[in-house]
Amino acid sequence: MQAIKVKHPEVLAPAGTPEKLRIAIDYGADAVYIGGDAYGLRSRAGNFSFDEMKEGAEYAHQHNAKVYVAANIVAHEQNLAGAGEFYRQVRDAGIDAVIVSDPSLIETAITEAPGLKVHLSTQASATNYETLNFWQNEGLERVVLAREVGIDEIKEIRQHTDVQIEAFVHGAMCIGYSGRCVLSNHLSLRDANRGGCAQNCRWKYDLFDIPDNGQKRELLGHGPDGKLEEFSMSAVDMSMIEHIPDLVEAGVDSLKIEGRMKTVHYVSTVANVYSKAVRSYCEDPENYQLDPAWVDELWKVAQRELSTGFYYGTPDENFQLFGKRRRMPRYAFVGEVLAYDEVTKQVTVQQRNNFGVGDTIEFYGPNFAHHTQKVTDLFDDKDQAIERAPHAMQIVHFTCDAPVKPGDFVRANEEK
Amino acid sequence: MTELVTTVASLDQADQLLAAGADRLYLGEDYFGLRLPHSFERAELTQVVELAHQHGKKVTVAVNAIFHSDRIKKVAEYLRFLESINVDEISIGDPGAIYLLTKEQINLPYIYDASDLVTSSRQINFWAKHQASAAVLAREVPYEEMVPLAKVITIPVEVLVYGATVIHQSGRPLVTNYSNFVQEHLDQADRQRGLFISAPHHPETHYSIYEDINGTHIFANNDVDLMSVLPKLSELKLNRWKLDGLYADETKFVEIVKAFAKARDLMAQQALDDQQLAKLDEIVHDNQAPERGLDRGFFDIDPNEVK
Ligand code: SF4
């Protein structure tokens, strides 16, 4: 019997730089989102110039992928001038859509850059189908749901609207409704809705009340380990790798990965895993099985514990960072493969982090290609034997038993 | 003409507020509205509407929650109810509710209120084009930004002149989650419990925090009090003033409303001087809960200071 195929949703990866854009696409992302100068929420994440956008879009289109520009600030009076011109330039650079949250900027994009597709950012906290209908009526192509929406709710939303649905599946999350948090404005004078968030939710707070005597009364408690636990509002990260079928069946059109500030190591790994999982499922849903190696792989780039966010109910205390941190596996990104010689079995690597003889390293490449290798010899670019490769961008070669490809990455477990 | 909009905590208080000079009462039910001093059942709500109308005053009902699928289904019916009891206006923060107004052909003006998100004239005018009757200006808009904004807006904006400012809404029960993790369990995390958090290295700060069916809400360190700068608002013709009694004592809140009403009246007669303003501000301070501070929020902040 022929396997029944299901519609393949897009895997949407973050790309903070032109290099990461190419890598995300090489590693299987169907689309990437990037930042544009003035209107993006990650003002500190590498933003793209219009030329870089154009090159990025060309690269993506050659590979059947799309590029979106996040322009999701909530504008104040002084941010309005120039918005129309910005959107026209983005459109003319060949960008496939802009991700916007401020209604005034949505209107500007639609009226002043006709032809440019617009997606509603998660910052606008869209949580129900009538809201999606409202935005579709405005001419939007897609709505990124609030992270507070559960799987069953997505199914219901899908039944009541045909606007495209994008949902976060991986990465760090706000503890509050995105857009409805100005802790940073008030505690740090940095506007969370204009890219300035100081992550104040992750701070450690005191918790108290003030009884009638006017004196502060501490209410902090002790964790299971007996240690004083300060009040905090820090969410663990999200990972939906174990629930790809649920997302696809619920009708999500685009699975979004958070992390425009994240490293090449993260972007390549996460794009690789999700695109592999989604492809496997869509090609043969009936016989799909989660490969534990995918989960392991994600843990290699995890910075915090992982959870399913709001997808299966309101998150309890286990979905927040309290008490002792679980120890994360720590992997360092150590290099990129430049060449491999099948005859001599020598791999040439450009170093990104110190490694050397005796280390166990792991090669990985697009399509989930993996090879683990113990480094038994090491030579510099003058063929001199060395013990370690300590210099950034240093070119070295060594024996690698299995064939690897130029562009593959190398990581090493730091816990020896 | 300046309009004083005040929250309502009870039918009794509604009566006193109207006598104190409130022009518009703001109230609602927690299921549909956010951060209200009291959750009014339909019967009670109807009484307040009738009372206000007897006094020739108006009522705005809060329908500004962020709706999930379970609740959006009940919004249309609620809106029809509000229409049937002749509510003058509703507040909306979720565009889904605007969509319903049109779809269901419900004839209710709305003020757009998305707490911190309405920050520019262009956005205000966007909602105006979508039939909003007014918009609630984010508290994070400083005076210097109000000046150019006020010149180009096509509908009135409402400015919070007194009360608590929300700075965070989470869908998670943040206090309960914390309390479940630690050994010392807190039995209550609602507004009445009076919980605060303070920022690291700033033990003097006191951000109110509570949970209800709309999640967890956190408020600015001090309540807003713009009494001393009312003439500046007036000059800009920002004449819809909101007083929020969420954290105020019922009776004392009426006194505060009286002070603002007095300022409004004197200003209308062009008889408000600095001395009187200072005196009225003193009344506000005298009636402020001792554990809560007052300041002008973002009003005086230089926009360039905000990163
Ligand atoms: S403080 Fe936390 S919840 Fe608020 S915007 Fe920043 S990251 Fe998000």
UniProtKB/TrEMBL annotation, chain A:
Pfam families: Peptidase_U32, Peptidase_U32_C
Family: Belongs to the peptidase U32 family.
Protein name per UniProt: U32 family peptidase
Keywords (A to Z) from UniProt: Hydrolase, Protease
Domain Peptidase family U32 C-terminal, residue spans: 330-411
Swiss-Prot/TrEMBL GO biological process terms: proteolysis
Source organism per UniProt: Lapidilactobacillus dextrinicus DSM 20335
MF terms in GO: peptidase activity
The UniProt record lists the keyword Protease: yes
Family matches, as PROSITE patterns: PEPTIDASE_U32
Automatic annotation (TrEMBL), chain B:
InterPro entries (alphabetical): Peptidase_U32, RNA/ubiquinone_mod_enzymes
Pfam families: Peptidase_U32
Domain of life the protein comes from: Bacteria
Protein name: Putative U32 family peptidase
Taxonomic lineage of the native organism: Bacteria, Bacillati, Bacillota, Bacilli, Lactobacillales
